Amino acid sequence: MSIPFNRPDITHVDRGFLEDAIIGGHSSGNGIFTKKVEEFISETASSDRTLLTTSCTHALEMSALLCSLRPGDEVIVPSYTFVSTANAFALFGAKPVFVDSREDTLNIDASLIEAAITPRTRAICVVHYGGVACEMENILELAKAHNLVVIEDNAHGLFARYRGKYLGTFGSLATQSFHETKNVTCGEGGALLINDASLVERAEILREKGTNRSRFLRSQVDKYTWVDIGSSWVMSDLLAAILWSQLQRANDINSRRVAIWNQYDSDLQDWADKHGVLRPFVPAGCEHVGHVYHLRFREGEQRTRFIAHMKEHQISCVFHYQPLHASPVGRRFGGFSGQCPVSEHAGECLVRVPMFNTLNDNDLARIIDTVQRFIP
Ligand SMILES: Cc1ncc(COP(=O)(O)O)c(C=O)c1O
C-alpha cells in the first residue's frame, strides 16, 4: 500500500457540522460558525480580532494593505518561504527584500535583518518555519527601533508557542492557513489575527470589498456603502463549519503529529548523524505542533536519489520551497540583501517525509525503516 505525503482528515464529524450549516440556510460569510471560529481563535490566542479569510495568501494581502505601503516601499521577508509571503507585498507595489535563513531552524536570520533595513523599509514579515518560532524578541526590538510593522506569516504554526505565548500574537498582524496540507483544515482558508486594535476597523472594511458592511451587520449604521478599497476575502460559513469541527479536535491532531515527529527524530538520529544528514532543530522555548518533519542532505543529488528510493517503496516524500530571491519574479521585483546560501541549500537539499495525524504506527515504522535503508 502506498503512503501519501499528506492525507487531509475531514471526518464524518466534520460532515455533520457542514450539514448543520447547510440546514441552517446560511452559506455565505459571517454566519454562526464564522463567529464561533473567530471568537475561539481570538480568545485562545488573546488577539484583538480574528477575521476568517479565503486563504492565508489573502490574509497576507490584507496585511500589505493595512501597512498602507506606497510603491517603492520595502518589506523584509525570508528568501526561504512560500511565494505568497513576498507576492502579497509585491502585488501592491512594494519591494520584497530577501534575507537568508538561520542554518539550524531555517527561519529568517534575525542577525541579518538590520543590514537589510533602508529608509524605505516599512515592515518585516517573518515565517515560523514548521511552526518553530523565529527569535521574536530580537525582531520586535529591531522593528521598534526602526518603526516597522511586524507581520507573522504563521501558516504552519496555529497553536504553536514561543516562551509560552502563541505564535501569531507577537506581530501587529499575523496570518494563518487552513489549506488541506495544514494541521487544521477546511480545504482552502485562512485567517488574519489583528493584535493592534487601531487596525481592526480598516481590516473589516478591506475584507468586505471596501465597504462598512461589518458595521451594518452589527447595526452600527443603517446602510452600508463603499468607504475604502478592498476585495472579497470573506470565508463561506460552510467552510467555517468544517473548521469549527476541526478546531474541537485540534489538540488531538497536534498531539498525534508531535508524537510522529518525535518518533522520526529519535529513530532517525543515528542514521542522520552517520550520513551527515541534518534533522530539524527546535530551540529552547519553542513548542511546535508537528507540522513538518524534514531532512537536509549535503547534496541535491542525494535528495533526488532519496525521493526516488522512497517512491520505489511507495512512500511519497516531497521537497519544499525554492529560494525566492533567485526566482524569476524575485529577481525582477525583489531587493536582495546579500547572499542567501542557507535558503539555496534548503531549496536544493531539503525533503519532507509523510506527516499526517492518521498515519498509523505500522506505516510510520515502514517509513522509518525505508529511510534507514537509504545510503546517501
Ligand atoms: C509560509 C506560507 N505562507 C503562506 C502560504 C499560503 O497559504 P494559503 O494556501 O492558505 O494561501 C503557505 C502555503 O503553504 C505557506 O507555507
Secondary structure blueprint with pairings:
Layout: H1 12-24, H2 32-45, E1 49-53, H3 56-66, E2 74-78, H4 83-90, E3 95-99, H5 113-116, E4 121-127, H6 136-145, E5 149-153, E6 161-162, E7 165-166, E8 173-177, E9 190-194, H7 200-207, H8 213-217, H9 237-248, H10 250-275, E10 286-287, E11 294-296, H11 300-312, H12 328-333, E12 335-336, H13 341-349, E13 350-352, H14 361-372
Helix pairs in contact: 1-9, 2-9, 3-4, 3-7, 10-14
The chain binds pyridoxal-5'-phosphate (PLP).
In terms of quaternary structure, what is this?
Answer: single chain
- C-alpha end-to-end distance: 25 Å
CATH topology of the largest domain: Aspartate Aminotransferase, domain 2
Q: What percent strand? A: 5-15%
Q: How many separate structural domains?
A: 2
CATH architectural designation of the largest domain: 3-Layer(aba) Sandwich
Uncertain segments are none
CATH superfamily of the largest domain: Type I PLP-dependent aspartate aminotransferase-like (Major domain)
Radius of gyration over alpha carbons? 21 Å
**Topology, number of strands:** 13
Count helical runs. Answer: 14
Which strand order spans the largest sheet, edge to edge or round the barrel?
1-9-8-5-4-2-3-12
User: What's the average pLDDT?
Assistant: 97
Helix and strand pattern: HHEHEHEHEHEEEEEHHHHEEHHEHEH
Biggest pleated sheet: 8 strands, mixed
